[in-house]
Design goal:
The radius of gyration is 24 Å and the shape is globular. By secondary structure, it is α+β, with helices and mostly antiparallel strands. The two termini are 18 Å apart. It has 15 helices and 24 strands. The strands form 7 sheets. It has a 6-stranded antiparallel β-sheet, with no helix packed on it. Strands 6-5-7-8-11 form a 5-stranded mixed β-sheet, with no helix packed on it. It has a 5-stranded parallel β-sheet with strand order 17-20-23-16-24. The N terminus is likely disordered.
C-alpha cells in the first residue's frame, strides 16, 4: 500500500494510505436502531516507521516518511514521486521504498546510475535504520522510529459501512479528504466499495448538494469515450444529430468519479490532464472552451505505480490526480467486517425478517473473491430464495441450475450462469486468468528476475498477482 504525503490544499496536510491489518477481538455493545454491532474505542496502535533525510546534494534538508504498510513510495526527479529531488544524475523514478515486517524494503526502479547502500550498488535490500543511501549526487540517511496511528471508533463513514481496524484507520483520513477539494485516487480490488466510499466522501463534503456523477472507463466503447467525457456538437461525426454535454459538464459544481481510470487510453489521458489543470473542456467539433468546476475522484483496481513505470499511465496525470490516495483493503483482509456487512445487506434486502444466524460460519470462512459486492449479492440471493440458497453445500455462493450445467472445463460458461453483473463476472474471469498465468509463469521460470522479464510487469505487481492467486482470488 502506498503513501501520499504531499497535499496542496490548506485543509489537508498529510494523507497516508494505511495498511490492511488483520485484527482479532470480541465485539461488545451494539446499536439497537441500526442492528450493527459497535466496537468500543481502542488505544491507538503503534506502527513501524522510517524517515529518509537528504543529507547531501542540491535537495539537502528534504525528508520523506515511510510508515508500516506503505509501499512503493518513490524518490526521483518526477513530480509524481513522493520525494522529488533536483539532481541531474537521478532518474525520474529512481528508487522505491515500503515497510515490510518492520524493515524498510528498498528497490531500485531501473535507474540509470544505480542506487548505493553503504557504498554497495544495490537492486533490492531490507534496511533496519542508520544506513546511508546514495543516488546520483544525493545522499540520504535512514532513521527508524514508531508512530501512533489515528483510529476512529465509528462503524461507518457516512453511508460507507465498515468496523474493522483496517477500515476505521481510513475514516480520519476520509474526513480530511472530504473537507478539501483536492483530487483523490481510491485504489482497491474490484468490489471493495470504491464507488460507495467516493460517494460518502462527496456527501460529507461542501459539494454534497451538487451533482455526484460516475463515469466507468470500462463500460463505454473506446470509440465513444471522448464524446462521453467531453461532449460533442451537432454534426461532429456521423450520428451526432444533436449537441450533447459530456460528463464533466453534467458534474459541474459537484464531484466526478472516474472509475477504472487505469484503463483510460493514453491519448485521452492527455485531454483529461488539461481539464484538471485548466478547469475547462471543449466538445468534439466545438470551437470554444467551456469552464467547469468539478472535484475529481479517480478509482482503479490497477496498481497505478506499476502502470506509470510500464508507460501505460502518464506520470504527469498521476501527479495531478494522486494528491491524496486511499487504499481499500479486500474483504479477506478484514474478515471482522463480514458479519457486520452481512447484517447490513440483509436489512437492506428484506423487511422485518430475522437474520439467518446459521449461515454466519460459512460467510466467515469464505474467501470472498468478489469482495463486498459479492457479499451483497449473496445476501440478496439468500433473502430471495431462503433455504434454497443454502442447499447443496457451496450453492450459497454459486447458485447454478443442474439442468443447465456446462462442461466442467468451461470456466467462462460457469461464471456466466452465476447471474452476476457484467463487471462482477468479468472480474472473476480476470482473476482466474491471473491465477493460471502466475502458476504457468512460476512453473516455467525458477528465477524471479526471469519471471519479471517474461511477464513484463514490475516486481511489486507480480507479487500482488501471486498473493491473489495464493488466496484463491
Amino acid at each position: 500500500m502506498k503513501a501520499a504525503t504531499k497535499l496542496v490544499d490548506d485543509d489537508v496536510t498529510t494523507i497516508q494510505r494505511m495498511p490492511a491489518a488483520k485484527v482479532q477481538g470480541d465485539w461488545r455493545g451494539g446499536d439497537e436502531e441500526s442492528g450493527l454491532r459497535v466496537r468500543p474505542p481502542i488505544a491507538a496502535p503503534q506502527t513501524a516507521a522510517y524517515t529518509l533525510i537528504v543529507k547531501e546534494g542540491p535537495s539537502a534538508g528534504l525528508t520523506l516518511a515511510v510508515d508500516e504498510g506503505s509501499c512503493d513510495v518513490f524518490i526521483g526527479t518526477s513530480p509524481a514521486c513522493a520525494l522529488r529531488v533536483v539532481d541531474p544524475l537521478v532518474s525520474r523514478r529512481h528508487v522505491g521504498f515500503e515497510v515490510s515486517g518492520g524493515q524498510l524494503r528498498l528497490r531500485d526502479a531501473g535507474s540509470t546510475n544505480g542506487t548505493f547502500v553503504n557504498g554497495t550498488r544495490t537492486v533490492e535490500a531490507l534496511l533496519s535504520g542508520c544506513e546511508t543511501i546514495r543516488i546520483g549526487a544525493t545522499v540520504l540517511s535512514v532513521e527508524r522510529s514508531t508512530r501512533t496511528v489515528e483510529v476512529s471508533s465509528e462503524t461507518s463513514f457516512g453511508a460507507f459501512v465498515g468496523s474493522s481496524l483496517a477500515v476505521r484507520r481510513l475514516y480520519p483520513l476520509c474526513a480530511k479528504v472530504a473537507a478539501s477539494n483536492v483530487p483523490l485516487v481510491i485504489e482497491g480490488e474490484t468490489g471493495t466499495g470504491k464507488e460507495a466510499l467516493a460517494e460518502a466522501i462527496h456527501a460529507m463534503g461542501n459539494r454534497a448538494n451538487k451533482p455526484f456523477a460516475v463515469f466507468d472507463c470500462t463500460a463505454v466503447p473506446p470509440s465513444l469515450l471522448e464524446g462521453a467525457l467531453f461532449g460533442h456538437e451537432r454534426g461532429a461525426y456521423t450520428g451526432a444529430d444533436s449537441a450533447r454535454a459530456g460528463i464533466f459538464e453534467e458534474a459541474d459544481g459537484g464531484t466526478l468519479l472516474i472509475d477504472e481510470i487505469g484503463d483510460l487510453d493514453l491519448g485521452l489521458q492527455s485531454r483529461l490532464l488539461r481539464v484538471i489543470q485548466k478547469g475547462e473542456v471543449r466538445r468534439i467539433g466545438g470551437s470554444k472552451w467551456i469552464r467547469v468546476d468539478v472535484r475529481i475522484i479517480a478509482a482503479t483496481r490497477r496498481d497505478l505505480d506499476a502502470e506509470v513505470a510500464a508507460g501505460r499511465f502518464r506520470d504527469d496525470l498521476f501527479f495531478r490526480l494522486a494528491v491524496a490516495r486511499l487504499l481499500l483493503p479486500p474483504l479477506r483482509e478484514r474478515p471482522e467486517d463480514v458479519e457486520n456487512l452481512a447484517r447490513y445487506f440483509w436489512e437492506s434486502h428484506t423487511a422485518n425478517q430475522a437474520f439467518p444466524e446459521e449461515v454466519l460460519g460459512r460467510l466467515r470462512s469464505y474467501a470472498w473473491p468478489g469482495n463486498v459486492r459479492e457479499l451483497s449479492n449473496t445476501m440478496a440471493r439468500l433473502a430471495a430464495f431462503g433455504e434454497l440458497a443454502t442447499a447443496d453445500g457451496g450453492e450459497l455462493f454459486m447458485r447454478r441450475s443442474s439442468s443447465s450445467m456446462p462442461p466442467a472445463g468451461d470456466f467462462i460458461d460457469r461464471v456466466v450462469l452465476r447471474g452476476l453483473t457484467l463487471t462482477g463476472a468479468r472480474d472473476l474471469v480476470v482473476a482466474e486468468f491471473e491465477r493460471r498465468y502466475v502458476q504457468a509463469l512460476d512453473s516455467a521460470h525458477t528465477d524471479e528476475r526471469a519471471r519479471m522479464s517474461a511477464s513484463g510487469v514490475t516486481d511489486r505487481y507480480l507479487r500482488t498477482l501471486r498473493g491473489r492467486a495464493r488466496n484463491g482470488v
